[in-house]
Amino acid sequence: MSWNSIVILICIALAAFGAYREYAREIRSYLTWRILAILIAATILACLILPISYPGNTIQTTGKHKILLTQGFDKDSLQAEKSDSIYTLDRSVLQQYPKAMFINDASIFSDNLSLDIFGFGLNKEELNQLVGHHIIFHPSPIPYGFIAANWTDQLKVGEVFEVQIKYKNTLAKACKIVLKGLNTTLDSAEISANTNSDLTLKSTPKNIGKAVYTLLVITNKDTLEQEQLPVIINPIKPLKVLILSASPDFETKFLKIWLSQNGYGVASRSTITKGKYSLEYINMAKPDLTHLSAAVLEKFDVLIGDLSLLKGLPVTENAALQQQVQKGMGIIIRADSSGKASSWLQRYFLVTSTSGKQTISTTLNIQGKGKTAKLNLDPAYINAHTNTQTLVTDEHNHIAAAAALFGAGRLVFTTISNSHNWLLNGNNSDYYLLWSSLINKAVRKEPITENWAVKGDLPVPNKPTRIVIENTSIINSIKINQSSVYPSQNPAVPFEVLATYWPNALGWQQSISNNGTPYWWYVWRNNAWKSLTAANKLNTTNQYVQEHKGTTIVTKQIRQKNWVLVPKIYFFILFLMAMTFLWAESKFLAR
Amino acid sequence: MGKQGIDIINSLKQKWIGYQLLADVILAAAYALFAIAILHWLLPISGWWSVFIFVIVGCVLLYLHRPWQITSLTVAAFLNQHYPILEESAELAIKPPDELNLLQRLQLSKVDSALSGIPALPKQFTIHLKRALLLVIVAVIVFITANKFAHHSYVSNSLFSNNQQQKASPPEKVLPQIDAVDLTITPPAYTGKPKRSQDKFTLLAEDGSTVTWEISTNIALKQISLVFNDNERVPLKPNTDHTKWVVQKNINKPSFYQVDIDGKLSDLYQIEIIKDNAPQIRVKTPKQYTYIDAGETSKVMLNTTLTDDYGVSNAMIYATVAKGSGEAVKFKEYKIGFGDSFAAHKPQYELQHLFDLPKLDMEPGDELYFYIEATDNHQQKTRTDVYTVSIQDTAALLSMNGLVSGGNIKPEYFRSQRQIIMDTEQLLKQKDSLNKDNFNSTCNNIGMDQKLLRLRYGKFLGEEDESNVGGLGENTELNKIENFNNAAMLFDAITDKHDNAEDATFLEPAIKAQLKATLTEMWNAELRLRLYKPLEALPFEYKALRLLKDLQQKSRSYVAKTAYNPSPIKLEKRLTGDLSKITQPVNKDNIKAKADQFETLKTAIQLLEQIKTTRLYSNNDKHVLQLAKQQLSVKASAQPGIYLPAVNAINRILSATNPQLQDIDLVEHSIQKTLPISAQLPQSNSAKPDMGLAQHYYQNIKNNR
Known about the structure:
With 591 residues, chain A is an alpha/beta fold.
């Protein structure tokens, strides 16, 4: 006799016995209900013991099922998995989990594989090797530390070095993040306990050339983390500036003095009377400035001029100027009391002057650079326009300087006409800041022949580092640390080549193309920026899984007809209800 | 017998009260000791708090136990309770015998004998005392231990501070040849400090000290010298066997030095200077501006404190009294010493001086200015701001001068003479219509005017004022009774004050002579007028006026015209706007950007960053580091305390083949401190090397639009 029939028989016997007992009782109330409850209870008891199933569809993966361990995996999460075939690409994982099999290359997996990835995931290169497999990602949570970090790794003298970081503090204590350069604390910030914070640390470097700054994370007196921030501070190349003024004035004079004292080439032309100019050339040759031509203008990086004068230029000169700006030269236009005649120079900059008002003393806000001291401004401001970028505002958010694109060049328009008062008050830094940001915005971009960049993950020893080089000419080979590397041409972009290099030493690495200047890049120690790398891998892998989700499900899974077990919990609940009724009846209802 | 019983009970009562009191006091003392032991351990509080606690606890205990409430009855009850032999009848002994009945009397005799058998000091009386004593002993032990702990913590504190001191002066590295060094610092006389000696090279000396180096070496050496600031070399003088070397030097600026033994240089040692500060003067009273109102005592108390780091050698008050006002102001200067002698050269003096203003010849309206100047032992002087004391002038306050004459009244000298002439002419015209009396009186009046005018001019020449000639009647001041004996005033009134220097000195002799001539003419005119002969007077009046006009002209100065010959105007070119022949001003300049004086330090930093990773440097690099060292040395000679460790570190880097990271860090830190903040300058961004792709793109957009 089979197990099933034994169970059924016993249950029928139980039901019969129970029904008889109820029937034989003296109290007759609820008899039908009671018997019904007995029958239900017995039936359900049988259902509880016997497996009840129904025909349905299930999704089943085909092919083999494999596990790939990456850094940060949790051993406990592996126990549930049948460890038929566990692999890893990382030697450090192997030390933690010796049962795993070490593989050098993910591409050895055969196609149509279902792959469970545990830990922080893989980087882009490794993921690209897994194309065609179905990946199920089991991410581990990121430990405390830096989740994101970015800093200005290439600076020019006088520019501010900025580090922006996102830090996850899981500790119960506040920690302090300190930026150190040349063994001196430059800036610091505090992160309170159990928070994720975004913060920016700043400092203006005093040195030039290559330097390695450090970012320390300190709680009490323990240093939790110490990360390197390589930075290169480049010297400034003096620019050539042309200043045209409708009349000699102090603003021009001070600008001239400041620029020329720093070795900048300055040519200035101020109108004395009609057709007569006072000409001045400092640190440069003597081009004829009485008539502006394309050839003359080509020699300058930026032109600073009064609006009325620029508007009043003869047609030929105006055309030459327009052509030069389209080619990349910048103009800083100083607003003055010129007529309403329309000009290409003022297309985006309409000035509203609040007539009847005296000059207003206000602080200026230079976008991205911060606030300055007070300055007396003329009661005029630039109207906001969709095509302009605001550069300087006053404390009422009126625009005092704005920029707009014109061809490859830029037009910068400003209503500030007496910033030299700062210099007279001894406030040099604000003056330098204002004019630096205005000129920086307008100045002609310096053409370079070569541009290098390290792509992808942080370069670490004995891992491939991808270097992208953009060059105006075709590169056949480059030299990294005196050894030749042969880059591959990007098939889509003609001026871009890609080189892969396996660094074997820490610190600065020198790369040189056929004839260019050396490019320096930094190789970190193997476990630098641990949490940041983990966070990056998590993001990359998650993104990869998201992108490849649709395709994998369709191609890798098959729907199958199948018997599906009914969960026992439903029967158990019904059984409990029947029994509760019987108990309650005997306790409360039976009278 | 009955009395005996009462006596026993009374004595027991006294003992009980006594022991109870004693027990409470001791208990209170024990508690106080406990409390103070704990509090003293935790907080730094004074021992006097224990007395306070003792009193409080004692009062509480006494209030709880109330030993003063123990009576003979309580004692009897106690005895009844504890001694069955008394058969519950002890109180019978207290009762007066005549109140007792027979049975009680019988019982009393029994009780009396029993009472005499009771011990003089029952155990129960002392048990509290014993407990209290035990507690006190424990308290004392706790107190002592706690105190000891407190002492320990104090000791460890002092140990810590010792460590800090040692940290401030790290152990010096001395060349091996040097056996011992003895530096004798002789502070300059002004400090008043004795000579002292030390066995370290690092120096902290007063400005102007003489330092003697006495270096004993363990072997005979050829030459030892001290190298100051890397450039000044001072050789030491040896004794006969060349093992003891001596040199003396005057120290007056901070610097650093090395010991050079036969060409081998030691570490750098720093010399720090304690500068002598100028004395400080603090004036407590009076305030900067003091104003003495009418009725206040015209005395001002000066309270001041002088302090100096070594000693004040002298202090003086320089006072100036200003009398009068306007141009007539006169100054008188006084130099007043403080009563104290400064022979002791103490570092602090509290000084007072009382200004008695009338003694300084000061009157209402006068002002006193003073300042204090102090000199210290080093002949450094300090002076205070000027303080002002002024006495209010009540007379000026009451005068209506400013109020009545609203405007600036111009002298009417010249107009008056003209007026007189006009009046005379008018009179002559009206001669026919006027009767004689009227005519005469008018003529006389004009004569009066002429006289007044003459007198007014006479003043310029210092002529006597004729207003009060011939009597003192007008002088109302003198008529007052209190002034009858005032000789000064009497003299003032009746004496002739000829040629008052004040009045006469303003005019030149020539002008004076002409003025005198004018006066003569006026005299003559007045004479004629008084004689009712206006027609005769008129010529004199005119003459006087002419002379006055002349005088007026003479006070003017003459400036000759300068010659200017305007160029002739070319009429054919005028207003044509032709600028063709005007040349344009063209300036050409080459301003070299200032050579960066910190260039070497910046390159050195680059190099150090490189050495950090490689730990190697070439000979070329060595040169760069040496240049940087020179710059740091200059800094170190000015501020050895800050920059000397860096110079030492750079020396170590230069001498070692494998530089230490901490040395590099130290040097980098110092250089970072030295470098100025780099100023913001405009600069260009770089365009991408895109083989003209962007340009092409732009052109296409433009063309297709």
